[in-house]
Write a structure and sequence with these properties.
This protein is mainly beta. Helix content is 0%, strand content 59%. The chain contains no helices and eleven strands. The strands form two sheets. Strands 2, 4, 5, 6, 9, 10 and 11 form a seven-stranded mixed beta sheet that branches. It starts with a strand and ends with a strand.
């Protein structure tokens, strides 16, 4: 299963961006969808995660500013980022976990990552 992320870019402090990540392949189902971010020299950290049923969890630094959502029909996850701060500058990665058709009768699990999209918050 491959993930394609998009939507990053340069934005001024206080601005907004919306990231998208779409999965492709012989997908059976997608359980969790999440966004992580990473700054050079630091570990990748969880930003937000959403379950198949729609339960959302956020890292403390983004609570109240970021919103994660998903479209199960399109196997796509979104991250709406508002009130962006310079410290939000990072490469953002999407992650999905679920299962896919290995053959017509065999279903296996997957844990896939997108390629990363750079978000820069600067004046």
């Amino acid at each position: 299963v491959q993930l394609q992320a998009s939507g990053g870019g340069l934005v001024q402090p206080g601005g907004s961006l919306r990231l998208s990540c779409a999965a492709s392949g012989n997908i059976f189902s997608v359980n969790s969808m999440a966004w992580y971010r990473q700054i050079p020299g630091k570990q990748r950290e969880l930003v937000a995660v959403i379950s198949r049923g729609g339960s959302e969890n956020y890292a403390d630094p983004v609570k109240g500013r970021f919103t994660i959502s998903r479209d199960n029909d399109k196997n796509t996850v979104y991250l709406q980022m508002n009130s962006l701060k310079p410290e939000d500058t990072a490469t953002y990665y999407c992650n999905m976990r679920g299962s896919y058709y290995y053959t017509d009768t065999i279903v296996l699990e997957f844990d896939s990552w997108g390629q990363g999209t750079l978000v820069t918050v600067s004046s």
